[in-house]
Structures are given as structure tokens and as C-alpha cells.
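Researcher: Re-running this chain for the archive, since the previous output was lost when a drive failed. Same request as before.
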Amino acid sequence: MRDPGVDAVIRQWAAEREQSAEEKEVRRIASAWLAEIPRTEVKIPGIPGQRGGTGTARWAPVDLADPDFVEAMQERLPDAPLDLLAAAAGWWQMVGDVEEAKAWWDAGVSPLDQRALDYRAAGLVPSDLARRLGPLTVLEHLRRGSAPAWCVARLSRQRRDAAG
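Model: Regenerated C-alpha cells:
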């Protein structure tokens, strides 16, 4: 399923990374200048590891995005750039596990659509997106700009009316 909003995000992301001739020249000069600087030991950021037998600290590199999230996103968006997927995965992994993210994606919300985090925060769950509020589904209302809180309130009222 293609989502025009996600396609627009990918186009914007790609456009921001295109470089003008001047930017390319600046990068070439900077690279040449940096190549002339003598190399010193580069410390990679990480989490201090257990001390080895020699008494020196070792560092473990830190991945910003869980590889399981990135892999799941690549399955759904194989043409999206890896660093864009990793950035989006970083947001998703802060709020839930891979299975929950997959449930949102299966309900019709793209892995790159960070609005799902707002929907989740408002109280919606993936199964709510297919429910009808009048002639439209909740997902259709959200895509047309309805506030997530409005959808939650309408769903609550709908449930209350059905119970009463």
C-alpha cells in the first residue's frame, strides 16, 4: 500500500541530501584539508564495558536503532534509505516493541509515519483504525486531518451508546 504522505517524506529527505556544486566543492576542500591532518587514535562512542584482565576499560559500540526494528521496516519499505529507516526505528523502539509497531503498520500506518506515535499517545490502538465513525474509518478521518483526541472521544461515545 502506497501512502502519499510517506512518499512526500522520502522525496523531502532525498532533496535535503542533494548537494549543489558549491556544497560539493566545500566538501572536497574540507576532505582534502582533513586528509593532511596527522591521524590520531579515534575514540568511538560507546558504553564502558567490563574491565579486562589488563585493567583497561573497553568500549562497546552503541547502535542507535534496534536491528530488529530496522529489519522489519526494510521489509515494508525496501526502497527507503537505511539511515532514514534507522532514524524512524529509533522513535518506534522508544514507545513499544516490534510486534506493536508491526500491528500499526498492518493497520495501515507506514513505518515512516511518526503521527502513529501521536495516535498511540491519544489512546488509539491499531484495531481502532479500521472502526467506522460515520461513513469513514478512523484511519480515513486521521488522514483527512481529524485530531486523534476527537477520534478517541467519538469511539468512546460509540462504545458507550452501544453498551447503553
